[in-house]
Amino acid sequence: MDTSKRTWQKGRGALSAPAGRFESVVTESIDDGWGNLDEPVPALETTVGVDRARSVIAWNESPDVPFDRSINPYRGCEHGCIYCFARPSHAWYGLSPGQDFETQLFYKQDAARLLEEEIRSPTYEPAPITLGANTDPYQPIERSYRVTRGLLEVLAEYRHPVSIITKGSLVERDLDVLQELARCNAVSVMVSLTSMDAGLKRLLEPRAAAPARRLRTIERLSDAGIPVGTLIAPVIPALTDHELEHLLQAAADAGVRSAGYVLLRLPHEVEPLFTEWLRAHYPDRADRILNHLRDAHGGNCYDASFGHRMRGSGAWADLLRRRFGVACRRAGIDPSRRINLSSEDFRRPPRPGDQTELF
Length: 359
Hints:
By secondary structure, the protein is α/β, with parallel strands linked by helices. It is built from eleven helices and ten strands. Helix 4 packs parallel to helix 5 (175-182), helix 7 packs parallel to helix 8 and helix 8 runs parallel beside helix 11.
């Protein structure tokens, strides 16, 4: 069956499943006279496979992010956010960055064991690890597979600093481990906010936590003594940018200590997927949104250059930057403040078979 022309289904973000950029064969739907194009499309089901990774820590040298290492417990993400910049990663596995990305998922079965092996190396130097740099570590399948929970338990045993980025309320389940890490100043959580419009959220981020639910998560984390911030991401011109000030004030009222923002990013296959989504759900403003993005990226909808890809440039991007600073200060948030984590308490607990110390 040609999957490139699937139609939108409730609870899913992408409208179609186009082939990835590495595929040599592309299929196309045609009407052969038997009426197949008019038949109902079966509901998309989530499948989960094993990612047999040989290591879990991913390293980067990007000047745009404040960390040099991260772990993604899952490939693909059931939240189904249409704008997700991680969608193109599914193309490496012969899967579509469209609907396959949010329905054909993979979990790292041995993640906790592999992490322990890596950080027990005598040459390993501890520094904050980020969970959720690409896909959300608290997407719905984490309830069953508990990969993120296993990673946090290892990190807590070693008192290793970790930062978490999520839009899932399931992070509250792990308050016990997070509080253990917080006692060593070794944890922070960034809860991403996009819009307070529940109707827009259902189309934009179909299986992520509701906006009000995320604010309650921020409040619970803050009340439990967990350093928590917010990431207004992505900011979408002419669709969500008008909510910037309201989102920052709501987050501040819930207890955030820091804040950041990211302009919508549309790398590789994300651009046509997002454009398709826009023209289906918001046809009256699609051109305006895309034109704002082009103004911020030198005539293209996206520019991946370091120092540019997260914020853009030009008049509209500069105005957004100033608005963010003013809104932070009005909400009582220092826009330059970062939650700094410590590695001072890092330790390698003794294990059977370790070489004993010589006296």
